[in-house]
Amino acid sequence: MKKKENNIAYIDGANLHRGAKGIGLNLDYERFRTWLGFKYGITDAYMFIGMVSEYTDLYNYLQRSGFKVIFKEVIFDGDGKPKGNCDADLVLKMVSDFYEGKMNKAILVSSDGDYASTIRFLIEKGKLPTILSPSDVERCSILLKRTGAKISYLRDFKDTIKRKAPQ
What DSSP state is assigned to residue 103? Predict the structure, then answer.
């Protein structure tokens, strides 16, 4: 019997939210999680997101939808906007999962060029089949494009993962 691969999605939650909004996608996170499983064989999907108490309902929804939510403590800027950069936490989880043998393949869901060096590492190790960019082609970082990784764009799957209007 063939052992099922453990393919993991590492999702920059803020980047996914902003990217989906930028392409006019009202993302259905439950449909998105299911689609990740079918399309990429994702067994675990880690959503890295800043913890802001007023969004408890969102966090519960994400967890019910099948995401393993990894929270980052936030600080607030001078305008009162929350800042919770999760990049380092996402990279650490991705690389530690690789070294601990917890993943067969990794999918990055982000358009952020800060992940470029980690992407090159995973490509070198044969662990990265694709990057899934929430942004359109023009807004996806040139640094990610220069890695040579295959990049797929959420806009190409909008009809599959969008929130359906109530009937």
Answer: -
Which CATH number applies to 7-161? Answer: 3.40.50.1010
Domain boundaries along the sequence of the chain: 7-161
The residue written with tokens 């996170």 in the block is 29
Q: Of 143, 118, 119, nearest to 131 (Cα)?
A: 119
Give residue-wise pLDDT tens across range 59-104: 999 999 999 999 998 888 888 887 778 899 999 999 999 999 999 9
Local structure of residue 129 (DSSP, 8 states): -
What is the largest distance, in Å, between two alpha-carbon atoms of the chain? 57
Give the SS3 label for residue 84.
Answer: coil
**pLDDT on residue 116:** 96
Q: How many CB atoms lie within 10 A of CB 79?
A: 5
C-beta separation of 14 from 134 below 8 A: no
Q: For strand 68-73 and strand 75-76, is the pairing parallel, antiparallel, or unpaired?
A: unpaired
